Amino acid sequence: MQTKIFKRSSFLPVLSLAMVFTALLTGCKKEEPTYPLPVLSIDGNAEAELKPGATVSVVLTVNGGGGAKAIRVKRGGGFLEEVPVDENAVSFTYNTQKVPDDLGEGEELSYGFSLVNKNNVESPEVSFLVTGALYDKITVGSEALFDVAIPTDGIVNSGSAIKLVKGRKYHISKSLTFAPGAKLEVEEGVMVYVKADRENPIEIEIQGEAAILGTASAPVVFTSSRALTPNTPAAPGDWTWFRLSGSGNTSNSGKINYLRLEYAGERAFRLTEVGEATEIDYVQVYKASGEGVMITNGNARLKHIVATDCEGGSFRLGNQYSGYMQFLISVNSAYYAENDDFSIREEASPVISNLTVLGAGQDISNTHGMRIRATAAPKIYNAIIAEFPRRGVRGTDDISITDMSGAAVFAHSYVFAVNTDPYRDLAVAFAGTFDAVTGERLTNPFNNNVTKRLGSTFEVASIPGIGVGDFVPDAETPGEFNPSSVHAFFSAAAYAGAVNGSNGDWTKGWVKNPDGSIR
Known about the structure:
Elements: H1 8-28, E1 39-42, E2 47-50, E3 55-63, E4 68-75, E5 78-84, E6 91-98, E7 108-117, E8 126-132, E9 137-140, E10 143-147, E11 155-156, E12 161-164, E13 169-172, E14 176-178, E15 183-186, E16 191-194, E17 204-206, E18 209-213, E19 220-224, E20 242-245, E21 254-262, E22 269-272, E23 279-286, E24 293-296, E25 301-308, E26 315-318, E27 324-331, E28 340-344, E29 351-358, E30 368-372, E31 379-390, E32 393-395, E33 409-411, E34 414-420, E35 423-425, E36 433-434, E37 441-443, E38 450-454, E39 457-460
Parallel strand pairs: 2-8, 10-13, 11-14, 12-15, 13-16, 14-17, 15-18, 16-19, 17-20, 18-21, 19-21, 20-22, 21-23, 22-24, 23-25, 24-26, 25-27, 26-28, 27-29, 28-30, 29-31, 30-32, 31-33, 31-34, 32-35
Antiparallel strand pairs: 1-3, 3-6, 4-5, 4-7, 7-8, 9-10, 36-37, 38-39
């Protein structure tokens, strides 16, 4: 068998040609140069308030060093899209997306942008924030306000809501009613300017649910639009009322915390048929043209309520209202009319503790402190009534006063700085009994501050520091009666009045003084 022998020299030319071909191909492939780290920034504001359906428009400054490739876009933290850009681009306007239709008032939607170059190197991400804004802006005075869109008939129907978000100021241009099942939601610090209209004063009524969520440092405020127009300043009666309308004792109208109502009209803070499940805590009515707080029927429970310079009287409780109330303040700086500043009438039977009612002084015209009338049967503890010309506490009609277990009770309280009749008519029984000759007190079944009867008036003990416009005593004034023994709703507060010394002054930071300054 013959064996073929291949010579090495014959194979070399073939191998050399292959190597040359490969080298030629390699030499023809152009390598991508290395570009500098890409840089991307936002030209202008990094946030926008936009309506649902509006285009999201973001101007970006691009620096890709000649190697820009694409803008990478994220939304809500997740990848959305990648948009090509010219390699030498210096600016790019992103406007391919619209605000989702379901973005609510104040809801936030974040976008992230980065620049990718031809080396597939990505720049640091820059952020852009879209916040939902459902309402157009208008200018009142020099202030830009969001003008709340109100249905043609003024009714927000069941299942719908209006939300007003913190950091914004709003304008309400006509009366607004929230039907049962509808909701008004207001976040802390929101200012609401109600259009001043004396011929057709605006009313706000909530038959559904309220969620007023102010804080001591950032209360929710409803005030007159004229607060923004110095040439036509705000005045009592610029609008009518803020009203909760429940459906009886078991109903729940929501939650109200730290709300101030300014320059409203008759019955500025109005409750009717509101049930005990409703939470109402820290409310001030400031300069109303009528009654400040009016409650009828229901059994709503309220704490920390202030009425300041209300021209028709501070509190009026009537019909069959039977709720609990604690830490109430009524203060007036001037004479407005012949008012009973705190009136309890019809068949009302509230239980009230830690109340301070201050008139504008003993030398002013005819105003009165508290009047209990008709067949009302309140139980009142730890009250202070002072600085009135006459009638500190008065009982008339068919009220029944017997003892601490009776229908009507006014006990562990102070009535002083009242020129004539600190206790009047049937309410004289709250002062106890006296020796007909010496005037010395014989009995004091209600533990009030009367020490002696002097003809038609009384000798009484007072509390230092309490005076016109001043509801904070000079020192803590511990008392005998703790209202928490009556019901779990009541906070432990064994002292007379709404505030127990300056360290316990819960009005600081959110309540207005009569001169308009914040306490």
